Amino acid sequence: MFNKILIANRGEIACRVIKTAKKMGITTVAIYSDADKNALHVEMADEAIHIGPPPANQSYIVIDKVMAAIKESGAQAVHPGYGFLSENSKFAEALEAAGVAFVGPPVGAIESMGDKITSKKIAQDANVSTVPGYMGLIEDAEEAVKISNEVGYPVMIKASAGGGGKGMRIAWNDDEAREGFQSSKNEAANSFGDDRIFIEKFITQPRHIEIQVLCDSHGNGIYLGERECSIQRRQQKVVEEAPSPFLDEATRKAMGEQAVALAQAVGYASAGTVEFIVDGDKNFYFLEMNTRLQVEHPVTELITGVDLVEQMIRVANGEKLSITQDDVTLTGWAIENRLYAEDPYRGFLPSIGRLTRYRPPAETAAYTPGVAAGDAGDVVVRNDTGVYEGGEISMYYDPMIAKLCTWAPTREAAIEAMRVALDSFEVEGIGHNLPFLSAVMDHPIFIKGDMTTAFIEEQYPDGFVGVDLPEGDLRRIAAASAAMNRVAEIRRARVSGRLDNHERKVGDAWNVSLKEISFDVTIAADKVGAMVTFDDGTAIRVSGNWTPGDQLANMMVDDTPLVMKVGKVSGGFRIRSRGADLTVHVRTPRQAKLARKMPVKVAPDTSKLLLCPMPGLIVKVDVEEGQEVQEGQALCTVEAMKMENILRAERKGVVSKINANAGDSLAVDDVIMEFEG
Question: Least CB-packed of 18, 40, 56, 135 within 10 Å?
Answer without folding.
Answer: 135
